[in-house]
Amino acid sequence: MYGLDGTKHEWCLFDRFSDYLKNDFDVFSIDFRGSKQNDCISQDKMTLTTLKEDVEFVFHFLKKEYEEVFVVGLSLGAVSYLISDVNFDKAILWSPGNLKVLWKRYEKNVKYMTELDEKEYFDKGDILIGKEFYDSCEFKTLKSDAKKKTCPVLIIHCTKDDVIPYKKSVELIKEFSANFKSVHLIKDSDHNFKNPVFEKELFNLSKSFLLKKF
Prior knowledge:
It is a single chain. The chain is α/β, with parallel strands linked by helices. It is 43% helix and 13% strand. A four-stranded parallel β-sheet has the order 1-2-5-6, with helices on both faces.
């Protein structure tokens, strides 16, 4: 599950990870309602509720066909898993988002705030952020959501993430109720792992975790 931007890099990142896993796993991608990637760009299509519902629908759909279902979420994709009411069999969270941090970033953008006042949404480029989603980010924390998660979880974050500080992941991992929970920091990488060396480390860590028996 990709992040809020749904940028071309993020899609290619997941495409490459899918190729990396193809001999060991079947891979499915989830698209957000409201994303320009799926031609469904109405600003009211993506809320925390729709993100939650989409993850739960896909989980129950795949569980009809597969004994084990794992989830890999980048940034907002990780948040989408956390706010859902389902426990996958394993979870990998890449640079997991923090809604309060995102809210503060948007609040400082005059263009976004002007557009939000006039239209009740703003155009972030790859996605339209509606007022309902924006307002819900201000007070939403993920600690209580993490406590509900019992499956093995691995968080991979970057020490030079300029979107979500890596210390947020160091704090978040403590909240999970899983018997196995771990956070790995990739030194000097950015939020989206835009470097072949960092990407290789990301993929190796993730695949090793998915293959690990608990």
